[in-house]
UniProtKB/TrEMBL annotation:
UniProt cross-references to Pfam families, sorted A to Z: Sigma70_r2, Sigma70_r4_2
Family as reported in the entry's similarity comment: Belongs to the sigma-70 factor family. ECF subfamily.
Domain RNA polymerase sigma-70 region, first and last residues per copy: 22-88
Keyword rRNA processing: no
SUPFAM superfamilies in UniProt: Sigma2 domain of RNA polymerase sigma factors, Sigma3 and sigma4 domains of RNA polymerase sigma factors
Protein name (database record): Sigma-70 family RNA polymerase sigma factor
Keywords, alphabetical: Sigma factor, Transcription, Transcription regulation
Location of the RNA polymerase sigma factor 70 region 4 type domain: 120-172
Amino acid sequence: MEADELLVRVAGGDQRAFEELYTLVSGPVFGLVRRVVRDPAQSEEVAQEVLLELWRSAGRFDPARGSALSWVLTLAHRRAVDRVRSARAATEREQREGRRAYDTAFDQVAEEVEAGLERQWVRHCLGRLTVRQRESVTLAYYDGYTYREVAERLSLPLGTVKTRMRDGLTRLRECLGGVA
């Protein structure tokens, strides 16, 4: 029996016809898939998917449009190309993710180094303030006290603390090059 007639019978649910069709087309299907996919294990998987699709979609075969073998091999080729494209896309995604992870790690290192240098420079500039200015600025900016709380802790009038803070911050800004 020819593949065309077998495929028509498979479309009607004939399992015996599918067995015969399977025997007839499995070799050419696997050969075509193997040439496209190249990987033997992947090729077996794709060929199996094609033959399963053949059983499920045999009703879509139209003998007026071509031979059964051509139709089956077209299914196989499309499925094989889809698998290759899918594998290529997965590889590209993994490579992009790998590059992104590498770039992120590099950026974190650069940021940590930059932050360390900035801390050193701020310490240097704090060292150039008077003891009273440094004390007020440190309590407010490093310990988190409000101006009023700084005044209470130092037992000074609020206006005096504000003046020290303003003068200290002005000197810090000048030392840091106007970036603060």
